[in-house]
Each structure stands twice: as structure tokens, then as C-alpha cells.
Design brief:
This protein is mainly beta and 880 residues long. It folds into seven domains: 132 residues, Immunoglobulins (Immunoglobulin-like); 122 residues, Immunoglobulins (Immunoglobulin-like), CATH 2.60.40; 54 residues, no CATH class; 136 residues, Jelly Rolls, CATH 2.60.120.1560; 100 residues, no CATH class; 105 residues; 131 residues, Jelly Rolls (Sandwich). Helices cover 6% and strands 38% of the residues. This is PA14 domain-containing protein. It holds the Pfam family PA14. Keywords: Signal.
Length: 880
């Protein structure tokens, strides 16, 4: 009974699995920076509330992935909003692109055929990350402050609505603020105990730009990043990379919080140390590192720390005679200014003090600093300490409006300062050489006294100091504070010509030649009526024949072998014994080369067996020799050949050789021929393809990434255009190719319908292209393919196209042959080039120097002996 129920259970499971499908997703657009809530509608999804034995099992439940042409990014599933017919997930950061949804249910992927009714890449199953659905942060103000600071964001915020379920934004968009964050903690948009917003407004009723203000929460002291999230399609905000600062901890952040000191007690103590000092303040946070206290530049031993109080014990202070009055202290720089002052020299500013007319002061804790617009014609002095975050070599840059000078000490003492940079006049950027200091070696954590003297004339006054260190963890893509390193690599080399010496000693004469004889036995279990469709091939060296039917006649095998360039210029003679299923071919090599390697073979079916046996071992008459290069042999060379004869044989070895069956000239049978060896001006763009050298089928040139093969406007060498081609006269397209072509040929043509109307059509003819990384040759009957699909007459060719899947190279012949010669086309289907690729490209790079030497002691002996030397100078090139 149990076994009878098993098939029903399996059937039920199969039905359940096949029911898993995706109907559509929504929305189809969203933020580049993520947090867009994506809803997937379908059937058969996992119930996210079901009991799970192993919570760590990643295959359990629903897994959503968004896939582009280059990236695969998870979408975080929201379990509470997911059930059998719906999945909701939140997107992550994804570069602008089209993403297709992929869903795994309990570890099993939903097949593409079950996504959007088989159209899984359609708009209904696609999600697009776009800038116009991405909120932005263009500016953040301020960039530092204590926890609880009210910050203001400027950017493309899209909405001025928060916390409402009904109101539209004033610009008409149905989108609202959901929440905002600073450093992972909420940033409150509402004033406490009220329903009023701090600030949330758009520039106008038609604008997506505006301002948003929120108050930070939490007490963390350190570095923060700001973000906010909108509902609907918009998601999380994307800040400008110019807002990211490189912190002293070598991290990127947009905002820095700091603690506040409100008082110290007692205010005096013993120089011998031991005074218990109480420091009052707020936000004494030790999350990143323990609290440290310095008193007079010396550590004060911390006893206890709370949020608003630090207790420490002072160290002993020696009474110094150097009268030092300046110590590194609180954060920031002290900026002092004097209105309506016009110093002749900037160093005159040092004579100003608190009693000088127009004095005012301010502490600034970030640069660049912009002064109030209404203040003009003033001077300022900004002082403090530079504490490098890491040891290394630094370059310091100075920029201001209008003129300024920067001084730095090699210690914390002001009297050690020297001028390191100056800007004598206004400039908008770091354009002057004087604005840049020399390379300075600075130590981590050591305070260096720094002073900036500045004078403003009119308009807006600014000061800025920039540090450059040639060692960074960041790139220009992450922050504007980083500069990408650029290295120039120059490689030099010397090329030396290869020299080889070929020497023959004691060459015998009058040796009787013996022709090589081999027997090829072919057997197959194919039925008699199917043996004509069962094939094998034979080969010698690097060349092989096309498919040969099992049971082929001796003449067919003989023609196939004699077409191999590795046997030419010699020939073979073939005789046969046997039946259609079993044949013994005797192959006699009509050659004085002597011994031949056994013929190679390839079968195209498991029921075919081939053996090759050497019947008679060939012997060379020793009147000639051959040279081998890259597996290719020269034609026979006389043993006492001259320089020109050896050079000719080697050049012939490397020259381009097309199969004899390929018609390489236009004429009655060939309407259009192109081998890319001459004028390629019509083929030199993305639509047609790009001609490339040193990579041809049987020449030096070919067409890379072919597109448009032929148009009626293409011109002949005479300058006349080819015009329209009647397919009744030239119906066949033949070409050599290599690479990933789609299995179709595009054709634009006209024809006359059965109702006598002339119609122009563009269609695709299905075919099969080889995807192997080697040259292939193909002929296509265009006319027959069109007649099958379009009934009519007078078919006229206008244009031809090819389509690539991957990078493709094509050495292309378009041979429009008459249909009355089908044997010619059949022969062309199995063509291969004569000789491997690199040898043909080197023919013009070969030099030969003869150095014949006669051995006198052997010259008059019965056996003729001669020593000949050829020095072969080969120039090798690299081919792409």
C-alpha cells in the first residue's frame, strides 16, 4: 500500500515545483543606492513564517538575486511581507543598469521559462536603477559638531512630506520621507513633542531639489555618514563623493562628532603632581578608544570616565625656564581678525592684538573656511597645531582669497616656525608653485605649531589648507580628497635575428628510391542504405580532409588526400578492396621523400573503426631534402641547391595559399569578391567591421567583428558600384569565418509577389556556423532559402549582414555561383586553408646567405660527398 502511494506523492511534488512562477515585479525603476522595496508577484513561493529546523540554512525559504550583464546582487527579503504569492525585498547599491530577477525557492531556482511567461528579460521582469529615481545629498552643513547637532541636507529630495499617508508632495509626486540616519542612528525630522518639522522644503512646486534638516540622536563621538530613505521607487539617498572626508582613522566619513568640555576643577594644583582633577562636560564617549587627558602637555592619569565627567590625576611638572606659553589643547584653530586693516607686509599682522581696533576672534574646526560675505578689508591670523594622522612625507598646499602666508614649526614651539608656502595674489585654485610646500617628513601624533596670515580686500574671503600624502587606501572614485597614482612604464628591448645553419656531410649518391605504401582499413556496422551518411576523415601533418563516406570509392579517397597541402606537390594513388561496410584502401605515395608518417584519421560515429598499417616503408632517393617549420614542409629541395632555390622554397613555405577550389577573381561566375588584401576603405567602422592584418584564411588580412558584408553601393576597383544582384544569376554566398557568429545571415532584397507587386524585405536565413576556434568555410544558397519563405519571382539582392555572439574574425569571399554547378559548392563546404597561420605572414621577412664548402678529401671518391651550408636569418614577430 505504501509503494502505491509513492507515485502519487512524487506527482504532487512535481506539480508543486512546476507551479513556481513569476508573473511580474514592481516597481521597475529605483535608486542606484538601494533601499527600494521590490515586490515580486507569482505563485509557489516559500511561506516565510513556516517553521525552520536550521535557521542557518541558506537554502531555506526565498532567495532573490538581481542580475545584470556583469553583476549579481542579492535583494534582501522582508520575511514579514512575504507569502506564497508575493515576495518583498529591499535592493542594495547597484550601478545604473538593467537587472533581471532570479528567485530560488528552498534552494531550487525558478526556471526562466516560468518567469514572465518565458520572457524573463522583458520589462515586466526587469528592474532599472536610474539617476532620476535616486535621491541625492549635494551638501551637508555643518560637517562637525557634538552629538545632537541639527544638520541640514541640500540635494534632490523629491518630496516635502513626512509621516503622512495621504498627502502628495507639493510638486505633485506621491512620495514621502520614511526616515533619515546619521551614523546608523535615527536623525529626527520632527521637533520633539510636536508635529512640526525642523525644515523640509522644495525649491518650488515644480522642483525635486530642496532642503531637509534633522537632529542627530545618540551620544557616539567619532565619524558618521548621512543618509535618508524615501518610499515608492526612490529608496536610499546617494551622497556626492565630494562630501566624503578622509578621517584621522583612515576612514571615509561625512560628519564628525566631538565631546564638549564645560569646566575643570580645581583650577590649580601642585607642580609635584597628584592633584585629582575633575573635567566636566558632555559626550565623553570611549567607543573607539579610551579617553586621554593632557595637562600642560603631559598625560593626566585617568581614574574614571562617565558621560559628563572625567577624573584624572596630574603628573609632576618641572618648572621650565623656556617660558613656554602655548600648548596643544582643544580641537580646532584659533582665528583672530581685525576689520579695516591694510598691512603692508602680512607679518605686520603679528603686531596686532586684542586691543587693536576692529578685533574679533573665532574658533574654526574645519577647512575650507568661508568668512561672512559682509566683512571686507580685514586681516586675520589663524593659529593652532597640526597633528599628522600617520608618519610619512607630506606636501602642504595653501589657498585663500585674497593673499596669505603659511608658517610651520618642526616642533610645538612658535619661535621655530618658518614660511613654507605663500599666495601673493588672488587665484582660484592651487595654480602657483609658491602655494605648495616642499616635501615634509612628519611624525604621527606629534603636534607641529602652524600659523596662517591672511588679508582680504573685497567680495568673499576664504582660507584653506590641504595636505597631500603619497600613500592612501582610497581612490578618486571614492572621494575627491584622493588622487590616483599614474605610472608610466617604458619597456626597452633589443631584437636579434635568429640564425640557423643547415649542414649536409658525406651526402650519398645513386640511392634507389622506394615509394611509401600504407593500408587504411575502414569498417562500420552501418546498414547498407545508411553507409553513405556515415563519415570519416583522413589527415597528414596539420591538414585533414573533409568528411568521406564509409564505403567511398578509391577515386573519392584519392582526390581527398591529393587535396591536402601537407602532401602536395606529391600525390598518392589509391586502390580499394571490400564492400560498403568494410573497405581496405591501399595508398601509394608517389614521392621521393621516402618514409611518411602514418596517415591520421577521425571517425564521426561510434560504430566506425579504422586502422592504418605501413605496408612498405618509403626510402628517399637522397637527391632532395625538405625543411620543416611549424609542422609544415617545404617542397623538395635539391641537395646542392643554390641560394635562390632554397630561398624560393622557404618563401613558398610561408606564403599565402588559397585552396584551388576558391575562385579569387570576379568574372561570369563571381559577382563580388573581397579578401581584404587591398582597398578596405568600405570596411572600417562598427557597422561593417574592422580589417586586421596577420590573421587571414589564406592571406594576411581579415575582417574583425563583421556586420554589413555587402550593399549595392559598394564600389569595384574601377570605381563603379556593384549595384543590385539578381539572385537568379548569382545565388550562392561563400565565405571563410572563425569566431562566435549567430546561426543566421541577414539579407535585404526585393522580389515580385504573386500579385505582381514589387516588395522590399529584410529577413534572416537560418544556418549553422562552427564555434570552434579555427577557420571554417561555408556556402549558403540564398535563392532557395528565400523562395521557401517568400513566394514570388525576380529576387534581387540589396544587402547582406552577419551577426556576432562573441568577437569574430572573418576572411570573407562572397562567391555568387550559378546554381547549375552544385558539385563545386559541395566541394567548398570542406575547404581548409593551405598552411598554418604564422608561416604565411613571414614570407617577406626571410633572408638567406649561402656558404658552400667542398671537402677536397672526398671530392674524387666513388661516393659523391659535398658539404653545403645555408645560414638562414629568420626575423620572428609576435602576432596578436
Amino acid at each position: 500500500m505504501e509503494s502505491a502511494r509513492l507515485p502519487l506523492l512524487l506527482a504532487a511534488l512535481c506539480c508543486f515545483c512546476s507551479a513556481q512562477r513569476i508573473q511580474y515585479i514592481t516597481p521597475h525603476r529605483g535608486s542606484i543606492n538601494g533601499a527600494t522595496r521590490l515586490t515580486i508577484i507569482g505563485e509557489g513561493f516559500a511561506q516565510e513564517q513556516q517553521f525552520q529546523l536550521n535557521p542557518k540554512d541558506d537554502t531555506f525559504g526565498n532567495r532573490v538575486t538581481l542580475v545584470s550583464s556583469s553583476l549579481s546582487i542579492p535583494c534582501d527579503v522582508e520575511r514579514d511581507s512575504t507569502h506564497g504569492n508575493q515576495i518583498q525585498c529591499y535592493t542594495r547599491y547597484m550601478p545604473q543598469d538593467q537587472y533581471v530577477v532570479y528567485v530560488n525557492v528552498d534552494g531550487v531556482p525558478i526556471p526562466n521559462s516560468n518567469k514572465c511567461y518565458g520572457y524573463y528579460t522583458s520589462y515586466q521582469c526587469s528592474f532599472y536603477t536610474v539617476p532620476y529615481r535616486t535621491p541625492t545629498i549635494q551638501s551637508l552643513s555643518p560637517v562637525s559638531g557634538p552629538p545632537g547637532t541639527l544638520v541640514t541636507v541640500r540635494g534632490r529630495i523629491y518630496s516635502d512630506v513626512y509621516g503622512s499617508n495621504t498627502d502628495l508632495s507639493s510638486n505633485g509626486l506621491n512620495v514621502r520621507f520614511l526616515r533619515s540616519f546619521m551614523g546608523g542612528m535615527p536623525c529626527d525630522l520632527l521637533i520633539p513633542e510636536s508635529d512640526k518639522l525642523y525644515n523640509l522644503q522644495l525649491d518650488s512646486e515644480t522642483s525635486s531639489w530642496g532642503y531637509m534638516s534633522c537632529k542627530m540622536t545618540g551620544t557616539y563621538v567619532g565619524h558618521h555618514n548621512m543618509s535618508y530613505i524615501l518610499d515608492d521607487e526612490f529608496g536610499r539617498s546617494l551622497p556626492d563623493k565630494s562630501l566624503f572626508w578622509v578621517s584621522s582613522l583612515d576612514k571615509l566619513s561625512m560628519f564628525q562628532t566631538f565631546a564638549e568640555v564645560t569646566g575643570v576643577s580645581p583650577s590649580e594644583g601642585s607642580t609635584m603632581g597628584g592633584t585629582l582633577l575633575t573635567i566636566h562636560g558632555r559626550y565623553f564617549d570611549q567607543t573607539d578608544q579610551p579617553a586621554q587627558v593632557l595637562v600642560g602637555g603631559l598625560p593626566c592619569e585617568v581614574q574614571s570616565v562617565s558621560d559628563d565627567k572625567i577624573l584624572c590625576r596630574t603628573a609632576a611638572h618641572q618648572m621650565k625656564s623656556d617660558n613656554m606659553k602655548v600648548y596643544p589643547g582643544d580641537r580646532g584653530l584659533k582665528m583672530e581678525a581685525w576689520n579695516d586693516t591694510r598691512p603692508r607686509y602680512l607679518t605686520d599682522i603679528r603686531s596686532y592684538n586684542e586691543n587693536t581696533t576692529g578685533y574679533w576672534s573665532h574658533v574654526i574646526d574645519s577647512l575650507p573656511h568661508t568668512f561672512p560675505r559682509e566683512i571686507e578689508y580685514f586681516s586675520s591670523r589663524t593659529r593652532g597645531f597640526l597633528v599628522p594622522p600617520a608618519s610619512g612625507n607630506y606636501t602642504i598646499y595653501l589657498l585663500c582669497d585674497d593673499r596669505c602666508e603659511l608658517y610651520l614649526s618642526n616642533s610645538s614651539r612658535p619661535e621655530d616656525q618658518v614660511k613654507i608656502a605663500d599666495q601673493p595674489r588672488y587665484t582660484s585654485n592651487y595654480n602657483l608653485e609658491s602655494q605648495k610646500s616642499k616635501v615634509l617628513s612628519l611624525e604621527k601624533g606629534k603636534p607641529y605649531y602652524m600659523e596662517l596670515l591672511h588679508q582680504e580686500y573685497a567680495v568673499v574671503a576664504t582660507i584653506n589648507i590641504a595636505l597631500f600624502r603619497g600613500d592612501s587606501s582610497f581612490t578618486e572614485d571614492q572621494t575627491d580628497d584622493a588622487v590616483n597614482e599614474v605610472q608610466k612604464i617604458v619597456a626597452r628591448y633589443e631584437a636579434f635575428d635568429e640564425e640557423q645553419v643547415v649542414t649536409f656531410n658525406s651526402w650519398p649518391a645513386n640511392v634507389a628510391a622506394v615509394h611509401e605504401v600504407q593500408e587504411v582499413s575502414v569498417s562500420s556496422n552501418c546498414p547498407d542504405h545508411l553507409c553513405g551518411n556515415t563519415f570519416f576523415s583522413l589527415g597528414y601533418g596539420l591538414a585533414k580532409t573533409g568528411p568521406i563516406p564509409v564505403g567511398a570509392s578509391a577515386g573519392v579517397v584519392e582526390v581527398a588526400l591529393n587535396s591536402l597541402w601537407s602532401i602536395k606537390p606529391d600525390t598518392v594513388q589509391v586502390s580499394k578492396q571490400g564492400t560498403s561496410q568494410s573497405s581496405d584502401y591501399t595508398v601509394t605515395f608517389n614521392s621521393d621523400r621516402g618514409d611518411f608518417e602514418p596517415l591520421q584519421y577521425e571517425v564521426f560515429g561510434s560504430d566506425t573503426n579504422i586502422t592504418v598499417t605501413e605496408v612498405t616503408k618509403g626510402r628517399n632517393r637522397l637527391s632532395t631534402f625538405t625543411l620543416l617549420w611549424g609542422g609544415v614542409a617545404t617542397k623538395p629541395i635539391s641537395y646542392n641547391a643554390s641560394e635562390s632555390e632554397v630561398l624560393s622554397a622557404l618563401e613558398d613555405l610561408m606564403s599565402a595559399k588559397c585552396p584551388t577550389e576558391v575562385l579569387i577573381a570576379e568574372g561570369p561566375d563571381v559577382k563580388y569578391f573581397k579578401d581584404f588584401e587591398k582597398d578596405n576603405s568600405q570596411f572600417n567602422n562598427a557597422q561593417t567591421g574592422t580589417p586586421v592584418s596577420n590573421f587571414g584564411f589564406c592571406g594576411l588580412w581579415s575582417l574583425k567583428n563583421p556586420g554589413v558584408l555587402f550593399t549595392e553601393s559598394y564600389t569595384k576597383e574601377s570605381g563603379a558600384s556593384y549595384g543590385q544582384v539578381p539572385l537568379s544569376q548569382h545565388s550562392t554566398l561563400c565565405f571563410a569565418y572563425m569566431g562566435g557568429l549567430t546561426n543566421e545571415v541577414g539579407i535585404k532584397f526585393t522580389y515580385v509577389t504573386s500579385s505582381s507587386q514589387t516588395v522590399t524585405q529584410t529577413t534572416k536565413i537560418n544556418t549553422v556556423f562552427s564555434k570552434e576556434p579555427e577557420w571554417s568555410y561555408k556556402c549558403i544558397d540564398l535563392l532557395s532559402s528565400l523562395q521557401t519563405k517568400y513566394v514570388g519571382s525576380k529576387y534581387i539582392l540589396l544587402e547582406l549582414y552577419l551577426y556576432k555572439v562573441t568577437l569574430a574574425l572573418i576572411s570573407m569571399w562572397m562567391l555568387f555561383t550559378l546554381e547549375r554547378d552544385p558539385p563545386q559548392m559541395k566541394k567548398m563546404l570542406f575547404l581548409s586553408r593551405d598552411g598554418p597561420l604564422p608561416l604565411r605572414a613571414l614570407a617577406s621577412l626571410l633572408k638567406l646567405s649561402p656558404s658552400p664548402k667542398i671537402n677536397p678529401s672526398l671530392h674524387n671518391s666513388a661516393t659523391q660527398s659535398q658539404e653545403l651550408q645555408w645560414i638562414v636569418d629568420l626575423i620572428f614577430h609576435c602576432f596578436k
